[in-house]
Amino acid sequence: MSLSVGHPLLDAIIKLTAQRDQETLADALIDAILTLTNTDSASVYALGGELGHLSAKVLASNNEPVGSHITPLDVRPGLRACIEGHNTITVATKNGHQMIHPVLEQGNVVGLMIREHAHAYDHQGDVIEGLMSIYANQQSLLNHQQRDGLTGLYNRVALQNWMGKALTTDRHAERRASDTGSDTPLGCFAMFDIDLFKRINDTKGHLYGDEVLLIFADLMRESFRYNDLLFRYGGEEFAAVLSDTDLDTALMVLERFRETVAQHNFAQLNQVTVTIGVTQITPYLQADKLIERADKALYFGKNHGRNQANAFEWLDKGDIVPTISEHPQSYKLF
Fold it and tell me: Is 236 considered catalytic here?
């Protein structure tokens, strides 16, 4: 809870700078924009993907579902012009005008704030630009705190923050209500361990070990979707949250990633392999239990030959040998 000084602009700044995660920071920006300007509706987005395949995830909004995505962005002239020009763009709409503001971090557009209002002339333009600068600075600080310094993936702090929010009973209740009783999966959680990594460090040196970690992180980015969350858990261990994915699909994706790593040409090494453990994210499961389940599946693989993907649910049922098509072509990563 932030201090109020009775001045709307100062209160908005205090609230913005008091936030400690991306979602509540975006909420604070929306509140400030709606309170201080003539904006009718506003949404804050985080950009994901590569140029040509960009998407925007809703972080906060007063008129769009949080967590939903706008895609593709590249065919929308206003959004594309904002991203390429790093400038605020005005687009005429049926009910007035839409203002598209870039969120800049180190010269790159990492997000957007889109607001709509009935009048073309914006009396609060300077205020909004100032709030956008404060928001971008705060987001950059938060992003730095939650990123691994070597690989650029999310770090263990970010994973703990995600678990603290995503695994709460309130979040599950909201999700189930929005699914109207459907069996839509919450997703799957996977842990990865690079096989025999200590041997790589001991024989090739730690600098080369870091190079392997960097390449592994790049392969993860290339192999998973824009709405999956990728983490470096620590050392040679990594983790991933496969959003809105059932266990069978997750296993196909993870098996394909395992093959990608095994087939990649790592200089000075014959082969680098990875062992993976995965479990389904179920309602009301505690964070420590989620990690424990994925860990059990991971270490079963480590103790039974390495270079494989296993699911906790297999082990729990006694299904030791996975049943995965050798050529799972039906699932598209992007």
Answer: yes
